[in-house]
Write a structure and sequence with these properties.
Layout: E1 2-3, E2 13-14, H1 22-35, E3 44-45, H2 48-55, H3 59-71, E4 75-78, E5 82-85, H4 91-94, H5 115-125, H6 159-179, H7 187-200, E6 210-213, H8 216-227, E7 233-238, H9 243-250, E8 254-261, E9 264-265, H10 267-273, E10 279-283, H11 296-309, E11 312-316, E12 341-346, E13 358-361, H12 367-377, H13 383-394, H14 397-423, E14 429-431, E15 438-442, H15 449-458, E16 464-465, E17 478-482, H16 491-508
Parallel strand pairs: 7-8, 7-10, 10-11, 11-12
Antiparallel strand pairs: 1-2, 3-5, 4-5, 6-13, 8-9, 12-13, 14-15, 15-17, 16-17
């Protein structure tokens, strides 16, 4: 450690062993002295040669530090007259308390936000955040946690195929991809998605109606900004996804919770609560989180309402890839004759969230509007990932992967149900679902599902309480149990940990 010998500059400490370059250390020290007022405006600094000698460092180091301070306006260099502290520094800088560049500023309360920013914060603050692990809430990606309802079967991801396709694509057309740009997505992928949806979901669309996007939040935000004005109302499912209740207010949209009954969103209840709503955000096959397949009569009622009210339906269909009983129910979009449905799906649940790749199918009359809005947002999915996924679908790997994952998930659901019948008897009533990578578990009367979720985290188990996804209280507490990421041999131990967590929560509530 070397110290300066001059009266003021004896406070300067430089450490040659530090990873921070000496010129930067000197810059930081001089800047702090200036900002703290120890060197007043107009004060003359030693020459670079003198200061270098006092500090025992190379003159070039001092010159570099001075040049940086001169460039940023802290110093004023006068030809043949030396170097001085700049005379025009703002008062608030001259009297600032000296602190390191990276020290946090003192807390002065929440800074003023726009109405949109305040709405986003308020929407999130009304929801509880649930811990995901007992190790301080840090997710351990190398060990998928039971029973996370978001994680797919990462052990089933086609790593070798994906790596081969990515290497081939980059080798064959890397420079071309670097020049490629399209706000609506990579055209071969749009064509593959349109063909896939037409054959498996009954979606009627041309590739031009497909817009590749990141995820459901981006998709709903885009739809809201294209179709709704601030102050408009939108129906959301209660209980339902959290995304609409946070995204829509940020666009100035008023959310109207509509109860979900045994047949999905109750259209008549929605009309009674807000007949002038301009949008309904729904999940149908299955409804999330309750898991029922919404029947045809309710779907037709939804379309009839949209036509009469001059409104729109945002159909979130991202859990449709996993039918276990019979054939998958066709999408609502395929029944839409008036161009009222905005359809969303993604590859996150079937492949992995890290790809962050989804798609919208918009009515033909809205393609230009959505494309323009997407351009102004400037948020696009990776073109390389889009190209690899297009190849993955074109060569049949996607269809094979789906078949494999469906069999795997059916086996894992069966394993969970078998274990639940024994270990969870009297603690959790677990019901199978017709589609989707999770099941519903209903708790005994008087047991708080939030308490169970917190206890489960301490037992290294992730469960989502159903109460967190409802605006109005549910008649009974329940849990969402995702099984996709849990290998069959891990299921018994995971269920035992969950059973222990439920018993602990019941003891805390004195539930017999």
């Amino acid at each position: 450690m070397r110290r300066a010998t001059g009266s003021l500059f004896t406070t300067i400490a430089l450490d040659p062993s530090s990873a921070v370059p000496l010129y930067r250390q000197l810059y930081d020290e001089l800047r702090t002295i200036i900002l703290s007022g120890q060197l007043r405006a107009g004060a003359r600094l030693p020459s670079t040669r003198t200061l270098a000698g006092e500090l025992g460092i190379a003159r070039s180091t001092v010159v570099t530090a001075f040049e940086q301070l001169l460039a940023e306006g802290y110093l004023d260099g006068r030809s043949r007259g030396g170097t001085y502290v700049a005379p025009a520094l703002p008062d608030e800088l001259l009297h600032a308390t000296a602190r390191g560049d990276h020290a946090p500023a003192p807390e002065t309360g929440r800074p003023p936000l726009s109405r949109r920013g305040a709405a986003m914060v308020a929407a999130l603050e009304t929801r509880q955040t649930w811990p995901v692990a007992s190790d301080g809430g840090r997710l351990r990606p190398e060990v998928p946690l039971a029973f996370d309802s978001v994680l797919p079967a990462l052990d089933a991801f086609p790593y070798e195929v994906w790596q081969r396709l990515m290497t081939r694509r980059w080798r064959q057309s890397g420079p071309e991809l670097l020049r490629h740009w399209s706000g609506t997505g990579y055209q071969p992928l749009r064509e593959a998605i349109a063909a896939y949806l037409g054959g498996t979901r009954g979606v009627r669309c041309l590739p031009e109606q497909v817009i590749v996007i990141g995820d459901g939040r981006q998709a709903l935000d885009l739809a809201a900004r294209v179709l709704l004005d601030p102050g408009d109302a939108a129906w959301i499912e209660d209980p339902g996804y959290l995304v609409p209740s946070t995204i829509l207010p940020s666009a100035g949209v008023r959310v109207v919770p509509v109860p979900v009954d045994a047949h999905g969103l109750d259209v008549e209840a929605g009309m009674a609560r807000c007949a002038t709503a301009r949008l309904a955000v729904v999940t149908l096959a299955p409804q999330w989180p309750l898991g029922m397949i919404v029947p045809l009569a309710r779907r037709l009622a939804l379309l009839q309402w949209a036509g009469q009210a001059d409104a729109w339906v945002f159909e979130n269909d991202n859990d449709n890839q996993y039918p276990y009983i019979g054939q998958p129910v066709a999408a609502l979009q395929g029944l839409d004759k008036d161009g009222r449905v905005i359809y969303y799906g993604d590859f996150i649940n079937v492949l992995c969230a890290a790809l962050s790749l989804g798609y919208l199918v918009v009515p033909a009359a809205l393609v230009d509007a959505f494309a323009a809005a997407q351009f102004t947002r400037g948020v696009y999915a990776s073109i390389l990932v889009q190209a690899v996924l297009a190849d993955f679908m074109a060569e049949g790997s996607f269809a094979r992967h789906l078949r494999r994952v469906r069999r795997l998930y059916a086996a894992r659901q069966a394993a969970l149900l078998d274990e639940a019948r024994g270990e969870l008897a009297g603690l959790l009533e677990v019901q199978p679902v017709e589609a989707g990578p999770y099941v519903i578990g209903w708790l005994p009367e008087g047991v708080d599902d939030g308490d169970v979720a917190r206890q489960a985290a301490r037992h290294d188990v992730t469960v989502l309480p159903l109460s967190a996804y409802g605006v109005e209280p549910l008649a009974r507490g329940g849990l969402l149990l995702g099984y996709a990421a849990v290998e069959t041999q891990e299921m018994p131990a995971a269920v035992r940990r969950l059973a222990a967590a439920i018993r602990e929560a019941m003891r805390h509530r004195n539930v017999p």
